[in-house]
Write a structure and sequence with these properties.
single chain, 224 residues, alpha/beta, globular
Length: 224
């Protein structure tokens, strides 16, 4: 397994201090910055769009991991690529032409990811494995932060790990990730963990040590 990637989700950050929050998690040692884009249609919430990605881009050199929980997604791929996304992940459930969406992302020079909701089986990505750089398994139903971890998804993570084989694909997990849940997903094969509420709750960008301690705790739990 490659080194474990910790990707705090800024959905749980203080939006009134977003630049400070991004700088704080960068200073605290995050590997990636995860951005959850929600449209109020595909998921029951609205978060932000390309303008926020563009605003964040100058303040960190870390990979911007942009998770599009929107449908349709294709009309917006160019905008997120131009805004500075490094990875653009679309949902397998968000449209009828997953292969086309992934090809469009690759044509923009970006890493392409596919996300699966809890009710979507692993085999939904079987025909596009050779096109993708990342698989994101949702361990909550997408739309809100702070939800409880759905333990039944651990088996799906292990199944996808087997499907990936020796391909150079990151296996990412998002939803309810804490020092308590991280070990099971890492053991199943995940090598990138998205953590929102568990990182940001109780902290402030004025003191990055809180974020650092939480990310270290997740990393230690997952790798020991």
């Amino acid at each position: 397994m490659t080194d474990l990637i910790i990707a705090p989700s800024i959905l749980a950050a203080d939006f009134s201090r977003l630049r400070d929050e991004v700088c704080a998690i960068d200073q605290a040692g995050c590997d990636w910055v995860h951005l959850d884009v929600m449209d109020g249609h595909f998921v029951p919430n609205i978060s932000f769009g390309p303008a926020v990605v563009e605003a964040i881009r100058p303040h960190t050199n870390k990979i911007l991991d942009v998770h599009l929980m929107i449908a349709p997604c294709d009309p917006y791929l160019d905008a997120f690529a131009e805004a500075g996304a490094d990875i653009i992940t679309v949902h397998a459930e968000a449209g009828p032409h997953l292969h086309r969406s992934l090809m469009a992302i690759k044509a923009l020079g970006k890493k392409a990811g596919v996300s699966l909701n809890p009710g979507t089986p692993a085999h939904a990505i079987a025909e596009v494995l050779d096109l993708i750089d990342l698989v994101l398994v949702m361990t909550v139903n997408p739309g809100f932060g702070g939800q409880s971890f759905i333990a039944s998804q651990v088996g799906k993570i292990a199944q996808i790990k087997t499907m990936i084989g020796d391909r150079d694909i990151v296996l990412e997990v998002d939803g309810g990730i804490t020092p308590q849940t991280a070990p099971s997903v890492a053991k199943a094969g995940a090598n990138a963990l998205v953590a929102g509420s568990s990182v940001f709750k109780g902290g402030t960008p004025d003191d990055p040590s809180h974020y650092q301690a939480t990310m270290n705790a997740i990393r230690t739990a997952a790798t020991n």
